[in-house]
Design a protein that fits this description.
This protein has three domains: 172 residues, Rossmann fold (3-Layer(aba) Sandwich); 105 residues, 6-phosphogluconate dehydrogenase C-terminal fold; 69 residues, 2-Layer Sandwich (Alpha-Beta Plaits), CATH 3.30.70. The protein contains 14 helices and twelve strands. The chain has an eight-stranded mixed β-sheet with strand order 3-2-1-4-5-6-7-8, sandwiched between helices. Strands 10-11-9-12 form a four-stranded antiparallel β-sheet, with helices on one face. The structure holds 1,4-dihydronicotinamide adenine dinucleotide and 3-(4-hydroxy-phenyl)pyruvic acid (ENO). 3-(4-hydroxy-phenyl)pyruvic acid binds next to loops.
Length: 368
Amino acid sequence: MEDLKRILLVGVGLIGGSVALAIKKEHPVHIVGYDVKLDNCHLAKKLNIIDDCTEHFEEEAVRADLIILACPVEKAELFLEQLAHLSLKEDVIITDVGSTKSRIMEKAEKYFNNGIPFIGGHPMAGSHKVGPGSARAHLFENAFYVLTPSKNATNGKIDILKTWLKGTNAHFIIMDPKEHDLVTGVVSHFPHIVAASLVRQVENHSSKNEHVKYLAAGGFRDITRIASSSPEMWRDIVKHNQPILLGLIDQWMTEMNDVRHLVENGDSEELYNYFDGAKKYRDSLPVRAKGAITAFYDLYVDVLDKPGVISDVTTLLAQENISITNIRIIEAREDVYGVLRISFQTEKDLERAKTSLENRGYETYISM
Ligand SMILES: NC(=O)C1=CN([C@@H]2O[C@H](COP(=O)(O)OP(=O)(O)OC[C@H]3O[C@@H](n4cnc5c(N)ncnc54)[C@H](O)[C@@H]3O)[C@@H](O)[C@H]2O)C=CC1
Ligand SMILES: O=C(O)C(=O)Cc1ccc(O)cc1
């Protein structure tokens, strides 16, 4: 035990837990969790995600070889400041997993001018779920994992961190923190705000008309799924990426104004071209290409409404030894082709399931 390297994991939730599992897959190591929610720590220990829990952040920080900040981004900043005042191990590396990078990097450059390497990190995959119970070692498989090294971080230190994180099977890319925040603002943070606002619009209408709630199924649920993620996490992300998000909101308002004119004019060709342009661009986006932001391997299966059909599908998958993580019957058929949504742990399982079901005559669709 004494010889094992020690990792301090601050924030033992979905992402911290998944990183810990990926590290454990590749390295014999002693991981100690620290979390404001003690229950999360205890659950993670029970699930063998971490080896121990501590309530003494500083005591553990000075013993650690690697410190991973995996709590909401505003809290991560505070921990960084606390770490700067401690006598940490000479060879320690500090990293984080936060969804924004500029603010934490500014703080890291300010606090660690003593030589301690801080290497910002952002695994670009995840889910709307929270807590260690949803952590998975394969969560980041094939996803981009952005690294934003501070000035102190030599290539040697970056390589050591990549070796620690090898089990994620992610694709590491080094990015400038400002560029990172712009890109993630466009593809992740701003869409999250839009999803939340769509849900709130439906909520407003549902207080006036009881049917709204029941008809808000299918497509609406799909485009607003991310609105079910942790409000605490998104509060912090929006505060950290404020300037970029304000610019994107302004652009969106101009876009909505243009759309308003299109709707007002009612010109068939203009309306068609608007939707056609959006469809063409969306269809050209890489689907399940390496690095796409996704951790969901969902297959839609068109099934006839007759008894025994679900057991036929699940029996077939069981015979092929393909594990499923979730199965759901989707009642609104307009938005997706198919009525059964089956989720898998890996892309390989999804592809195998697709082939087996199609060989049996089912029509299947992969939808993002
Ligand atoms: N959820 C996602 O899909 C992704 C999230 N991230 C980033 O990962 C970080 C963690 O998010 P998740 O794991 O998704 O959330 P989570 O809610 O599953 O985990 C966060 C953990 O941090 C703990 N925590 C909160 N305040 C704390 C404090 N003051 N001290 C110690 N622990 C504290 C919480 O109790 C919780 O266990 C966030 O910074 C988020 O921006 C990055 C990539 C994807
Ligand atoms: O649930 C999803 O589809 C996500 O997009 C998850 C996500 C949330 C925050 C990130 O910084 C990265 C990925």
